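FIELD: query
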Amino acid sequence: KEQEGLIITPTRMCLVNTAILSARAIELFKPNLICMSGICAGIEGKANIYDVIIPEMCHQHDSGKWTNEGFIPELYDVPLDHYTSLKLDKIINEGNFNGTLKNGIALRKSEFQPDTEELDFKVYLAPTSSGSAVVADDEILKSIKIQHRKKTAFEMESYALYEAARQSLERPLFFSAKAVVDNGNSSKGDEYHRVAAILSAKTVYEIISRGICKA
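FIELD: result
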């Protein structure tokens, strides 16, 4: 039987909008799987431009308390289901997965990373976080980086999707796969967004087509 699904495009970026949209989609359509593609920022030295990162654990990096001494984070993690994590790891490491993603993607000159002549990236699972605002400040980035020593990337939606799925009575499988476009510092740009968005969408499609929902 052919797999059937629905693509929902959020009206805006943010945790609240994603939480509402995810919860309503689960309630209305009762899917076996809910997932997300998109772009993210990578931690310099841990993630490279175009890497596609699947959060094996995600938290909200701007949740906490502001005091006279500054911001004190209060983090609640949502991990992937263990079985889902094992299946994802197997899928992305078998059958020329990256080669399949590369097929049909032609880069413009401005979309190549410095000193490279081909599309180079990895797909892997790693800890990430989400927040309610775009980060383009070195001091804010520093505070995000120190919250978890193994954190690899951060963005604005995955935690909300993970939490909505975790709390749902329907208990669907869930994951997110987002491609790195910058390091979240003051030198942000958008030259890598097009290719990253394509890579992340193809990653989600390929994971589904290779049987993430099969028993």
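FIELD: remark
The mean pLDDT is 90.
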